[in-house]
Amino acid sequence: MSQPDLNFTITGSLPFFSGKKPAAMSCWSLGEVAPRFCFKCLSFLQTMSLSHMENMPLSHSSLQGAQRPSWKQWLFYSTVIIVLLLCSFSALIFTFLPLKTAQGPCVAKFGPLPSKWQMPSPEPSCVNKTADWRLKILQNGLYLIYGQVAPNTAYKGRAPFEVQLRKNEDPIQALTNNSMIQNVGGAYEFHAGDVIDLIFNAEHQVLKNKTYWGIFLLTNPQFIS
Q: Is 66 among the domain residues?
């Protein structure tokens, strides 16, 4: 079978061009004209579309039916936008903040009596118990301390009521209200070697069977050194 001749010519009339007599056009010359022709067609359609939109009469009924958004709609839209911004901001923080999550649970709790130090088995690698109500930090990280202090309302001693949560013997939180049960703790950045303890101004100022404190390693960011 013989191969078709690709060098055919177009001799028919081309209604898209000017009124000049169409001349024979090869495939090569048509390939050069087609892109320019398509561009002119697109420009023409865009001009016609804009002209049509400008000349289109406005619907009187649609204007009458339009209503301004109520304050509830504005409040809803504003809330959605704020939530989306907060989510985006949080995602950026956790994306660019170099965090290294703690491997395995690292938690310890002392009390309430008669229970003393309670730790998972094997003992966690982030802390080490050194005495009652006291432990030593073994790993840099962000820690969460939680606890409860129950005052002994029957205490009649002279010493003023005070319970301190300390880091290296410096108080980081102090409780002085002896009329109600209070919570102790918060999120703190500790380093290896820090000693954390909970002390009382007098031995019998608190009900130790209702008082306890614990610590939990949240994460160990790489920037803590």
A: no
Classify residue 192 as left (phi > 0), alpha (psi -120 to 50) or beta: beta
Tens digits of residue pLDDT in 34-85: 444 444 444 443 444 444 444 444 444 444 444 566 777 778 778 878 878 8
88 in any annotated domain: no
CA–chain centroid gap for 222, Å, is 19
The structure's pTM equals 0.54
Residues 181, 149: Cα–Cα separation, whole Å: 6
194 lies in which domain range?
Answer: 107-219
Overall domain count for the chain: 2
Decide which of 42 and 158 is more confident. Answer: 158
- List all residues 6 or more positions away from 19 whose beta carbon is below 8 Å from its beta carbon: none
H helix and E strand count, the chain: 3, 12
Q: Is 126 in the same domain as 196? A: yes
In a domain, 44, yes or no: yes
Determine phi and psi for 219, rounding to 5 degrees.
Answer: -165, 165
Question: What is the model's pLDDT at position 5?
Answer: 46
Phi and psi of 63, rounded to 5°? -70, -40
Residues 125 and 202 in one domain: yes
* 14 to 6, 39, 128: CA distances (angstroms): 20, 17, 91
DSSP state of 166: E
